[in-house]
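Intended use. Records like the one below are meant for learning the mapping from a protein sequence to its folded structure. Do not use them to infer anything beyond what is encoded.
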Amino acid sequence: MRGDDQGQSGVFSYISAEQRVPQNHPLRPLRKMVDEALAELSPRLTKMYAKRGRPSIAPEKLLRALLLQVLYTVRSERQLMEQLDYNLLYRWFVGLNMDDPIWDVTVFTKNRERLLKGDIAQAFFQKVLEQARAQSLLSEEHFTVDGTLIEAWVAANPS
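Structure written out for the chain above:
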């Protein structure tokens, strides 16, 4: 019997993103490593932010998003924000609820710059790498990338 092709105007679900991500997905153990690294860096993160003023993007969420950008070779922060808007796996990894608004690209970039200037991003990636190395998750296998393909893609997609 043929099923109906009915449109859907709204979504309401009792199933969380946590339940949707398969237990054997490779991002699950990585998320644990990331959370451990962020817990270690928490005192340094606290020192970087003022006690008063407008709230910024949580640095933990920003760093998780940057890691996804690297892992999935998302070519721009604009594309990263687009992926965060509709990709459930990305939302889960970063720690965003389904109803959370996605950050403006310029706000994301400004907040990212703060972490880069404070050497937090480097410390974060180093801690995650150390954990991955300790668990023998890294490979010494070599691969090559054709830079002309990247240049051509950037020229065709200037955003």
